[in-house]
Amino acid sequence: xxxxxxxxxxxxxxxxxxxxxxxxxxxxxxxxxxxxxxxxxxxxxxxxxxxxxxxxxxxxxxxxxxxxxxxxxxxxxxxxxxxxxxxxxxxxxxxxxxxxxxxxxxxxxxxxxxxxxxxxxxxxxxxxxxxxxxxxxxxxxxxxxxxxxxxxxxxxxxxxxxxxxxxxxxxxxxxxxxxxxxxxxxxxxxxxxxxxxxxxxxxxxxxxxxxxxxxxxxxxxxxxxxxxxxxxxxxxxxxxxxxxxxxxxxxxxxxxxxxxxxxxxxxxxxxxxxxxxxxxxxxxxxxxxxxxx
Amino acid sequence: xxxxxxxxxxxxxxxxxxxxxxxxxxxxxxxxxxxxxxxxxxxxxxxxxxxxxxxxxxxxxxxxxxxxxxxxxxxxxxxxxxxxxxxxxxxxxxxxxxxxxxxxxxxxxxxxxxxxxxxxxxxxxxxxxxxxxxxxxxxxxxxxxxxxxxxxxxxxxxxxxxxxxxxxxxxxxxxxxxxxxxxxxxxxxxxxxxxxxxxxxxxxxxxxxxxxxxxxxxxxxxxxxxxxxxxxxxxxxxxxxxxxxxxxxxxxxxxxxxxxxxxxxxxxxxxxxxxxxxxxxxxxxxxxxxxxxxxxxxxxxxxxxxxxxxxxxxxxxxxxxxxxxxxxxxxxxxxxxxxxxxxxxxxxxxxxxxxxxxxxxxxxxxxxxxxxxxxxxxxxxxxxxxxxxxxxxxxxxxxxxxxxxxxxxxxxxxxxxxxxxxxxxxxxxxxxxxxxxxxxxxxxxxxxxxxxxxxxxxxxxxxxxxxxxxxxxxxxxxxxxxxxxxxxxxxxxxxxxxxxxxxxxxxxxxxxxxxxxxxxxxxxx
Lengths: 293, 525
Prior knowledge:
CATH class of the largest domain in chain A: Alpha Beta
CATH architecture of the largest domain in chain A: 3-Layer(aba) Sandwich
CATH class of chain B: Mainly Alpha
CATH superfamily of the largest domain in chain A: HUPs
Strand order of the largest sheet of chain A: 3-2-1-4-5-10-9-6-7-8
Strand content of chain B: under 5%
Low-confidence stretches of chain A: 288-293
Number of strands of chain B: 2
Structural class of chain B: mainly alpha
CATH topology of the largest domain in chain A: Rossmann fold
Order of helices and strands of chain A: EHEHEHEHEEHEHEHEHE
Largest interface: A-B, 61 and 60 residues
Distance between the termini of chain A: 15 Å
Largest sheet of chain A: 10 strands, mixed
Order of helices and strands of chain B: HHHHHHHHHHHHHHHHEEHHH
Strand order of the largest sheet of chain B: 1-2
Number of domains of chain A: 2
Low-confidence stretches of chain B: 1-29
Number of strands of chain A: 10
Oligomer: heterodimer
Shape of chain B: globular
CATH superfamily of chain B: Amino acid/polyamine transporter I
Shape of chain A: elongated
Number of helices of chain A: 8
């Protein structure tokens, strides 16, 4: 039912994180995996003289890197490797995802992130602001994780437009991977800064129940979901108090500022990212494909 | 999930296997560069503003007014050798260039030294480039702020070395991270450089003719006569300097599969580049000689205090309030040249690491920026140390580095030219074309360069040579050349003990392609 999974690979720890997560997702969803390494397109180089000999060397090196990465993928996962060229890593990756009809792009956190935490690098950042394919971010340390399946999918539901695409994606992910579904509401803290915490709790809890109730109603027949309301003084606080399973995925929607069908990481998602110990799936606000709703 | 697999197999070619890379070639340098792009790369690699300010003074000191003649004659060995380069690049396109070709033709030992010569020459030029850039940076600030004292700061050894090292650090970061300007910006920079240089030369000529110059010298066509150079030593020294000013031009001629039309683009672009550059050189050298003369007066081109960086001293007297344009042109030209030049040693070091002629670390490619990371950093560190040491031991670091640079270029260019002749030895008589391009032209070019190298080496033993710095009674330029070459020999022997595989020819073997004519005849039989 779903497409392929594209991993944006670099021969770094972040790349290894992405490959490990990509392989886990592909195994859980039973779809093929594509490792894509994007080299800089030579026509953007205007200062350094072009050198076809060096380009060949780079391509060979890239193929070696990809072969090494492919060796770490379990045999059960069908996988292929591609060397692509692009003006930027993100641009090349999105183009490859289109050509491959990929359902997800997986990238790693930037170097220097804390263990188990996300830190956006330039590549992830660019992807999160331009991709029209859902982007999965692998937190630092994913390569060392024991989990081999997806045990739970948590959808962070807001109240504004975008929630329905997010819900569809979460349901589809949970179905494809055979994972439990959990609906999380962060509405309790989605209020102006400076409002008394007690007021937030009371007003928020009522609002949250309402939103989650609507979301539960919107679920397709036969889909069960847990419901949880995150409590905390801030989004970071609320997220850090939640329990997360090692094999869990968090799904968030793209910001309302995003262009139609493009990603744009919103402030709530960005704040969640800092505290989230599990991979985060960022879904475009609306998905225009027919039958999605 | 909505993206469904309805249209069958993915359209991408796998990266390995029999059909590797047959699809999605977009971005490979294959076919990326047109004539205009190649000319821009050529001019910005040669960096006429930088090369002329660095070499005009030393050239005038040896050949006097015969600079235009020397510039024209200096192009001949460059051209002949570049033909050899082109043939080798066509047969063996490899990022190791001279190193790889030297090994294929003459075996590991001579090939190693050829690569060493290239690395040494580029490392020396990097330090000189940074040195010139620093002087112009201070000059520019002083011109813009109207405070002449700031320009003097450039000659404080401590400030000079520190700023120069910062320059190198910045350039290394840019190279390492492979930051590129846009093509448009590069076109603007090159155009700006050319326009400013023309303006500079024209104003100098006008002022000289109207007598508004420190030493108005009447132009004479005899300046173009190479036979009026007083001695053969002066001739050789001048030639090796003028080879330096064309250095980088071969990049255009050897661009092959990178161009849109490999049969025509490189030739046309090389022609255009050389016409632009030679016209600029002639115009400027004539203009400045007419304006400032070849004497050793305060603004004379042969004055040792200004000769290492003549534009620095002459831009104010010639252009007055517009002098900052010259500073800007030289600065931007040095900056661009610093980038394009730094790639050379890094790629050669990478190839040497790859073939096991140096530790494998040198072959490392940065997984994030896809540049030869380790090799880039090492060459930058060596160039910085070289500059700092030279600044301390030499009275005039820029003049001495330029002179030793000319010598090193003759060394490795000459070896490369001979490598071409020897590599194609079985194909010399395949056709008229191959007779000229693989035998006669590179042979003559190599021979001229060899004579220049030996003559410069012998002459530079005189302690008065160059800036007049000497060590143990021998000229600094000589000591520098010999130390650099001997250091190469020592490192080579050390590597031969540690990494014998390369030196036994196991990683890169000697080769000589068979005659095509004979092969055809055999086929016909």
